[in-house]
Amino acid sequence: MSSFDLAVQGFCPVRWRTGRGPSGVDTGALGFRDLLVSAHDIADVQVADPSALAGLLRVLYVMAARVSGLDRVRHPDEFYDYRNELLDTGYFDPKRIEPYFTAHEGRFELFHTASERPFLQDRRLMEQCRSSKGVPSSSGVNKLVSGRAAGQSMVWLSHTTDADMPAVTPENAVWALLSWLYFGAPGRCTPRQVGETNEANTKAGPLRGTVSFHPVGESLFETLVMGMPFGGTETDKSVAPWESDEEDDPLGVPPEPKGLAGLLTGRFRHAVLLQPSADGTSVTDAWITWSRRQPQGNALDPFVIHRVNKDDEPYAATADANRQAWRDLDALIGARNEHTIRPAVFTGLEDLMDEHRRPVRVKALGFDQDRAQVKDRQHIAGATPALREQWKAKHSQAPEAWYRLQQAVERAELTGSNLESALTNVWHALAKTKPNHKVRDHGSRLRHQGMTAYWDTAEAQFWDIVLADTPPTDATANRFIRCALTAYDEVTAQFTRVGTGEGGSQIKIVETARRRLWQGWQSTSGGDSDE
User: Fold this and answer.
1) φ/ψ of residue 276, rounded to 5
2) Residue 28, beta-bridge partner list
3) Would you call 82 exposed, middle or buried from its count of C-beta atoms within 10 A (0-12, 13-18, 19+)?
4) What is the pLDDT of residues 150-169, one digit of tens each?
5) Which one of 5, 112, 228, 449 is least enclosed by Cβ atoms within 10 Å?
6) CB neighbour list of residue 171: distance below 8 Å, 6 or more residues apart
7) Residue 526 has what pLDDT?
8) What percent of the chain has a predicted confidence (pLDDT) above 70?
9) CB–CB of 349/367 below 8 Å?
10) Which residues, in sequence order, are CB contacts of 311 under 8 Å at separation 6+?
């Protein structure tokens, strides 16, 4: 019988805190139980796939809430007080961890050959996944693994075909499973027949095309405690899939995504099942299809920034692989404006850091994807330096520091927008074309090179401004304008090397567009103004 029990078998690589792990070992792989038992000795988990890590953390938050009792606190003030007390304790109580896994024994098995309820999977797919003619049909392991060519897709990143489907290890299958459940594509999928219903399409995963922002402490324990969002004032009856004694009704109305488990593990739109090899050392096939036909109620994911449209309806901010985490720092500390809703997990974080004097980093994890189509562009992973004073600043304990941070973000964004416009104008003038609002026609190469160079140098300036003990003596706006001018010169130099004829015309075009970059320049030093 093939078995891979995620509760006890090492599948998640970790990095131990200095001097805390097994003697002479800096890294290792642990199962869910040991991840919680040793969380205070673990610096961080080491998962290469940002989309899988975003899913894993949500799973761990639910487990951590269960074994700590934070999920049962229904008043916000009591929740934050209890969270502070838990941080003072410094670890999860092993006496509460063991009963949790004993109560759900068998629910963490990765393979259906060892459990009727494999972890985050639906065993019924073996029978229900059938073609329109009723023939059993699987999706193939190539479909499971991101980056592999499958079906009729073009061979870009791999040379796999449906006739050549290399097996994957159980560990890699876990990451693929999490990525599909949280970031899976909408559209065509393997047909699934439930009763008289036979459909071959699905909705997008709950996190598709988004970025999650997670508070990160000095240990996995601190990361999980600080990252546990308040579940709400209503009685939390939500259960995670591995905790439920009932299988979902694919045709029924799904429950509203309320409560901690409902928000973090109850909004999947895909159903997945893994097929192990006979000896359980690999995954050789998979079924990937729809999980629900009826719509589910809206929910604000507590780790995602939301925007508000003209109808006052919130929607998850779109992931952009070219956007670094620091550019949203003001929205994480305090909503940038009335059209921005910061992630709920950051509520109360200021008091926590003030009381415990712990520096906190922010980790960004996401996937730049098309939400309506099967287009995956680029994973997103980034982190800020350790912060503490910046969070306190928002609450008038250090108003100058908060103003400085806001100004740095605003000036960087304004200058970046001006640079992008200048580069676009240069391209159209040189190519003698008119803008038609299509990105591919806006001088993609020139614009991309210039903006990449700008944001790389702008980030260094941002942290120099924000982390300084005292306010900078030079104007914030001028720092970013200098970054933009340098980037502009680098990418337009090829058009200004010839001074006569066509070259002279090119120089004029480049210099005319350059004027836009000086917008906001301040002739006097010693701070910013709003002029």
Assistant:
1) -85, 165
2) 14
3) middle
4) 555 555 555 565 656 789 99
5) 449
6) 11, 29
7) 47
8) 88
9) no
10) none
Residue-wise pLDDT tens digits, 216-269: 999 999 999 999 998 887 777 889 999 999 999 999 999 888 899 999 999 999
The pLDDT of residue 515 is above 70: yes
Question: Which are the contacts of 500, defined by CB distance < 8 A and separation ≥ 6?
Answer: none
Output the CA torsion sign for 351, 352, 356, 361: negative
Contact 190, 289 (CB under 8 A): yes
Mean pLDDT of 5-29: 88
Q: Look at the alpha carbons of 199, 246, 70, 74 in this order and tell me if their dihedral is positive or negative.
A: positive
Assign residue 443 a region (left: φ > 0; alpha: ψ between -120 and 50; beta: otherwise). left
Cβ partners under 8 Å of residue 54, min gap 6: 182, 183, 207, 212, 214, 303, 365, 366
Place of tokens 């991101």: 146
Q: What angle do CA 160, 166, 172 make, to 5 degrees?
A: 110
In the Cβ-directed half-sphere of 114, how many Cα atoms lie within 13 Å? Answer: 20
Closest CA to 425 of 442, 450, 412, 445: 442
**What is the model's pLDDT at position 52?**
97
- The model's confidence at residue 387, banded by pLDDT at 50, 70 and 90, is confident
Residue 134 CB neighbour total at 10 angstroms = 10
**What 8-state DSSP symbol labels residue 385?**
P
Give phi and psi for 368, each to the nearest 5: -75, 105
Give the least confident one: 129-133, 333-337, 408-412, 493-497: 333-337
Phi/psi of residue 363, nearest 5 degrees = -105, 130
Cα distance between the two ends of the chain: 73
Q: Percent of the chain at pLDDT above 90?
A: 63
* Backbone torsions φ then ψ of 199, nearest 5 degrees: -125, 155
DSSP-derived letter for residue 237 is: -
- C-alpha 147/C-alpha 326 separation (Å) is 28
Distance (Å, whole) CA 430 – CA 47:
45
Mean model confidence pLDDT for the chain: 88
Q: How many alpha carbons lie under 13 Å from residue 156 in its C-beta half-sphere? A: 7
Q: Is 54 helix (H, G, I), strand (E, B) or coil?
A: helix
